[in-house]
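Limitations
The structure tokens in this dataset are predictions for the assembled complex, not deposited experimental models. Users should treat interface geometry with appropriate caution, especially where small molecules or nucleic acid strands are included. An illustrative entry is reproduced here so readers can see what is and is not provided.
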Amino acid sequence: MNEPVHIFGIRHHGPGSARSLLRALETVKPDIVLIEGPPDAESVIEYAANAEMKAPAAILVYRPDMPRRAAFFPFAAFSPEWSAMRFALNRKVHVRFIDLPHSHQLADVPADDGTDPQRSSYIPPDPLAILAEAAGYIDSELWWEKMVEHRSDDRGIFEAILEAMTALRQELDENPDITERRREASMRQAIRKAKKESFSNIAVVCGAWHSPVLGDLKSTAKSDAELLANLPKVPVAATWVPWTHARLSYSSGYGAGIESPGWYAHLWQTTTDVESAWMTKVSRLLREHDLSASPAHIVEAVRLAESLCSLRHRAKPGLAELNESAEAVFSFGSHLPLSLIHDKLIVGDDLGAVPLNTPKVPLQRDFEQHQKSLRLAPDAAIRDLDLDLRKEIDLNRSRMLHRLELLDIDWGNIRSGVRGKGTFHELWKLEWRPEFAVSIIEASIWGNSIVDAADNRTVNLASTAHGLSALCRLLERALLAELPSAIQTLIKRVEEESAATNDVVQMLESFTPLAKIARYGNVRQTSSALIDETVRSLALRISIGLPAATQSLDDDAACVIYELIKKFHSSIRLLQNQEFELAWLNCAVVIVDSSGVHGLIAGRCCRILMDSGTRSHDETFIKLHRAINEVDPQAAAAWIEGFLSNSGQLLMLDDILRTIIDRWVCSLTDESFEHLLPLIRRTFSTFEKPERRAIGEKIKRSDKIAVDADHRSSQLFDPRRLSLAMPLLNLLLGDGKEARV
Amino acid sequence: MTYLTGEPLTSVLRRQAEDQYAEELAEISKFDKRIRPDRWKLSPWAVCSYVLGGRLENGFVISPKYIGDRRTIEIAVASLTTDRALLLLGLPGTAKTWVSEHLSAAISGDSTMLVQGTAGTSEDSIRYGWNYARLLSEGPSLSALVPSPLMRAMSEGKIARVEELSRIPSEVQDSLITILSEKMLPIPELATQISAIHGFNIIATANDRDRGVNDLSSALKRRFNAVVLPLPKTLEEEVEIVRQRVADLGRGIAAPIEPPALEEIRRIVTLFRELRGGITLDGKSKLKSPSGTLSTAEAISVVNSGVALASHFGDGTLRADDVASSIVGAVIKDPVNDRIVWKEYLETVVKDREGWKHLYRACREQA
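Predicted assembly:
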């Protein structure tokens, strides 16, 4: 009779392993397949063979009472475990998971609140590195690839792995960590159980590292039972969630630790002419993006990869050689093709899918809990919701709706325009659509609670968004949704983008909201040092770049910058920081003193300098005169507008300023006065009505004094001629009644 | 190797690589048991060892000619074994010419088959010219033909070098296409052609950052494998390169000078790396990059002119004032945009950095 227990040591997510395993399973024809995986998820294994199920997908094991304590077990199409599961399910053979149950592993509550679920599974140091090193490889993956995955002839491979691992584990004389020992004990127990249930042909699929210790069932029976006795236990639930190739790679949170899932998928799908097929994929991808890549290129790239390979004494080109030759042949010194190849082919953007009837994911539970506590039931009909943000519950509702929006679940749509009316009212239009159920499952790759998911999603959006204004819009949404780490990331990104951009307008736009955060700190947990640093560098950068940005603008562009400068100035004053103020005032000096600046902007800067005391009134007076008398009337009016607008009160209270303007109006010739009248009138129309009246009163009074004084001292003014000007002046400054001199 | 000079060899300002490193090449060849492609003096593996340095079985030490990534050189050498020619790309000062010279010295034992690309390079210097006296007296014949270095390399099965390929006018560049794809050079005047024999290939160099260059046509691009020679990876590596080169060049100055303080070099290299990379070395803040290249070669010349200034007009010690003006000159190539970039960098980074106060002050005065 055959050996009743077959142990297959595999490399997790190794396509070669998967292929060898399938072939071995076909030969062995087991009556039960035991897989290294969480037994808590046994109830959901059956979904793996479901027609709607598409890898990559992950089994999620979590505590229903604490969804953040969770573990993901991702499977790709080329994962040996996935192949083993589907093999067993398709042949109606029993299949079981035999790892240490997560009801034990998730039982202990770590010191922090467990925000980092992937840390909960114990990751052993790479034992294969030692074997690889002995074979002269720096990278253990590469070694395994060459020894196992690249072999076309795989007979006896599992015996060889078993032998190598046995030798390795003896050599290392390691004292494995208690969790590791428990896991192995649990696997052995499961094999014993299967034997007892009189399965006669048992296949065990486990990581190569574990393979040597699972064969010995007799001598360990007693110690295993002891190891597994009295472990703490909590209820856990399991389900499937869709996964992505990007998430299988190193760069993302719950990474499975494979850098090149796309390449593995290629190895899984292609058995012959791997290199040529890969290069063909590469060139087709490049052609799609309008980069030149002809069949001649493919030939050359494959040949170069092969000669590189022989230079390095390898049997077959690996991904490294293929990448290097692609770089030399296709990219011609540009980084674009390589990063394209990396993102689209080496990692790939495959997204898995799970059947709709899989058990609920924690995010959905969290969502339902929120619906209950916030008393917002899903309703297919459209209804309006008026939120008063001063109330706790409404504030929370608003936050949740904003968070859902960031997750692309548009249950609520905010009614635009209403927000401007009052800061504490929000009007929403709610409409629940059934497909949101799917959106929630999809969103669950971002996190297990709405706030976590929205936070992670926004961090991801932030890292891909380009342009300051896009980032600032996102920042605004993140602020409304109150997502602490997303806000951090966004501020960091704003800093980066502002450093790289030459667009002062965008910097000015982003400055105001940041200055507000820096001043009022209305966001929880946002590191103020980070904001301060960003605000500082933005303020300095704007002050350096603004003079160049104000050169040669047409009326419309000047108007935009003018409004932004006003906001910038008030933000700077809000921050009350001497350094910024000094930098900004120096910048204003440069603007005022340079030619070719639009009057609107020059006038405003001049005014800012006068108000701050940087420039004296006399100096300002000289500027005022020069600006008005030397350029065309249109520009003069713009200058006056920039200088005076929206500050009628100042003109009313500040005698000196009023005198300057007054003197100017008086010194104008009749002709130019008539010319300028409509323009000046426009400026004065921005003042409030009572202000205008008060200014008129004051002018009248001071004129009387002046006239009296003139009468007494000399005949500087001719009262007769003055009275001719008065009706016009009154029309301009007064309340419309007849002038009385 | 012949040098057309009456002076002894030692006074030649610079000797060819195969001449200067003849001993190393001979030693490597002795121990090189691997397969050599036709007419290669060394196997591809031995060529890599020659360029990158190492120790032979008998303890003979090969000096490294190129400090950097091994795989870059491996790709370059592997390219030369294929049908395609090799194009070395990179900023000025990334040792493109240096690498191409040593590769051809190691492969063909001859680095003199050289065409220098300029805006005035004509088709004659790539294909062939005529000895007009002979042409007139004897009529067209092979003996009246003046072969270009490329043509000679083809018939001798050697590596030809084309320097600054992208400076050559586009229509002249394209005359390389026939040579590279058909491996032959037609001579219509004589109704014959020169065919390349095994061992022939071309190493071209080009600058991928400079303006005013002639971009390669895609037909020509397709016949080259491009290898980008990167800038030095780490700050330490770059500081070391600058220090060594400055020490070499320092001998040219008659006045006795102190070697420049490592700190000063480190500051300059840091400044160049940060502006070039668009990010501070601690990775905390992003920066704008100026339009200039700011290569290692420029850092070397900044330190050099600083040293010259200090030794001829100062007290011999390199100070911030001595380098400030040449730093500003190196950074600000475009009077408007680069000035903004530089001011931003000064105000947001240099100003608050520990130990950089004097540099900040010196640079501010310059601006």
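Some entries come with short summary sentences. For this one: The radius of gyration of chain A is 37 Å.
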